[in-house]
Amino acid sequence: MLLPAEDAALFFKLHCALMQFVNEQLKVVGVPESVTPYAALPVGQRRQVVEALVSRLDLIDAFIAANPARLSPEELEIVSSWRHLVSGRFIALRQLQKHMILLACQGTPTAYGLVALVDPMERVIPMPLPAMIETVLLPFRGKITYDGIISSFNVTFGPGSRRRFEQNLRIAKASHRLLTSLPETPAKELHGALPEPKRDRAPRPAGPSPREVLTEVVGMMDDFCQRRLNEEYAALCRKLAEKLAGKRPSPLLRGQPATWACGILRTIGWVNFLADRSQSPHLKLPEIDRAFGVAESTGQGKAKAIRRLLRIHQFDHRWMLPSRWESDPIIWTLQDSRGFMVDIRQQPVAMQREAFRQGLIPYVPADRAAAAVQAQVATSSSRRLFQFKIALREIEPTVWRRIQVLDDTWDRLHEHFQTAMGWTNSHLHEFLIPGPALRRP
């Protein structure tokens, strides 16, 4: 945004008159007997005059008292407001429709909305934003403009600096230091006028805590699951609600508890294909909306927001019913180091444990199978447990495995050997025991 043409002309008239007076009083540049007009000076010398004014703001009062340019009272009032100038280095952060946001480089995080004079700021600051500049900010008829001189620095900023600038801008906004007029009073926010603080007002009652909202949401979901679903669904919904409550700040504090309960149930139902008639229990998702008195579009939007926030996808084992883990092959289908899709349950234990460590599978199949065998042994009184040491001959160092199996058939023992050694059941073999030889093709 630019100053109107008549305002820009008035600004230059007043500013040049003041700078001419400063140069004549301090004899900053030019020949004392015939001082060169300020507007005709090179940029470097004009900057010296401006710096002299910044260090001697009392000259503004002297200029107003002398009034060498015979300015009107209104014009002198504008010059008087320049006592509140702000000089220094700034970060030109972004260009908005009404002004450019400048962030002070030092001191308390403060942002200014700068209005250009006669040239757009994109032309005055040719560097990509954010950019570091040096200038003097001046108030003018309720806006903030600059003295006509902007020095740019050949500095680029990485992602870390950009994040810090955005954080300082948020701090400035929260502390009402987003200024569009000077002196530094938060008369206007960058997107509109700030509301005047209301006095003698009773303190606003504190809102519910995340734990209180969580209790209310969980109570609604438990009641619904008890009537329409089952305890397994209820447990997953409670887990998801606690995950949301643990966020800081918790999203549960924004919105109605009924809407959150509906969105959580929809999310768990979506992951587990609750709307599929072949599933048990089976329920159309819009029925959840009607049960909580929520519009269908609202329920869909809340569920989508939850999925995006927690990166939930279908076949996500974290939010799938545990009773369906075994029967769903997609959970166990992963890509190995060669790029092939494999069933992790058929892979070595080390590979299974690494996939579990990365959170790709809900548990280690081999460990669960071993635990099942141990439990069977503990509860069995008729079957015995045998321990074998399997070693490959004529190999140094020795390659061996130790396994424990219940007494079983030769056919099953062969499968245990294949699994323990990581073989593919593709070679002839035989068992040699006292008595007749037993062979398997």
Assign the CATH class of the largest domain: Mainly Alpha
| Unreliable segments of 5+ consecutive residues | 186-197
Question: Alpha-carbon distance between the termini?
Answer: 87 Å
Strand content: 15-25%
Backbone CA Rg? 38 Å
Give the % helix. Answer: 40-55%
Question: What does the oligomeric state look like here?
Answer: single chain
- Structural class of the helices, strands and pairings? alpha+beta
Q: How many beta-strand segments?
A: 15
- What are the secondary-structure elements, in order, as H or E? HHHHEEEHEEEHEEEHHHHHHEEHHEEHEE
Largest sheet: 7 strands, mixed
CATH architecture of the largest domain: Orthogonal Bundle
Structure description:
The structure is a single chain. With 441 residues, this protein is of the alpha+beta class. The chain folds into 4 domains: 5-82, no CATH class; 85-191, OB fold (Dihydrolipoamide Acetyltransferase, E2P) (Beta Barrel); 210-323, Cyclin A, domain 1, CATH 1.10.472; 380-440, no CATH class. 42% of the residues lie in helices and 15% in strands. The chain contains 15 helices and 15 strands. The protein has helices at 5-26, 43-55, 58-66, 73-81, 121-124, 159-174, 210-228, 231-245, 257-271, 285-292, 296-310, 329-332, 349-357, 365-379, 410-421, and strands spanning 86-95, 100-104, 111-114, 131-140, 143-146, 151-152, 178-179, 188-189, 192-193, 333-335, 341-343, 385-391, 400-406, 429-431, 438-440. Strands 1, 2, 3, 4, 5, 6 and 7 form a 7-stranded mixed β-sheet that branches. The protein has a two-stranded antiparallel sheet with strand order 8-9. Helix 1 crosses helix 2 (43-55), helix 7 packs across helix 9 (257-271) and helix 9 crosses helix 11 (296-310). The longest helix is centred in the first third of the chain and has 22 residues, at 5-26. The protein starts with a helix and ends with a strand.
